[in-house]
Amino acid sequence: MNQRPPLGLSFPPDLSDEAAYEIAEFLEALSLAFDERYFAQIQRHYRAIHPKRSDLSDRPWEDDPS
Questions:
Q1: Distances (CA, A) of 30 to 24, 50, 66
Q2: pTM of this prediction exceeds 0.90
Q3: Distance CA 23, CA 28 (A)
Q4: Nearest 5 degrees, angle CA 62-CA 65-CA 66?
Q5: What is the number of helices (H) and of strands (E) in the chain?
Q6: Distance between CA 59 and CA 53 in Å, rounded?
């Protein structure tokens, strides 16, 4: 899995085990805090760009009020 990191980031090859661990812990805590704060907005946007099939009106006769 030799994919380039997102955002064109470049990481030093000589990062210590301790530094790598601390950075990973920080990023995990940041991600969790962000999700806790913005979860509803993230889900609302996700549903807007990926609607459920049942939310799509592929049966126009159901929209007819008569």
A1: 10, 26, 52
A2: no
A3: 9
A4: 110
A5: 1, 0
A6: 11
Answer yes or no: is pLDDT of 60 > 80. no
> Taking 70 as the threshold, does the pLDDT of residue 51 lie above it?
yes
Can you give the length of the chain in residues?
66
* pLDDT tens digits along 14-39: 999 999 999 999 999 999 999 999 99
Question: Cα Rg for the chain, rounded, in angstroms?
Answer: 21
Contacts of 47 (CB under 8 A, 6+ apart): 55
How crowded is the C-beta side of 19, counted as CA atoms within 13 Å? Answer: 6
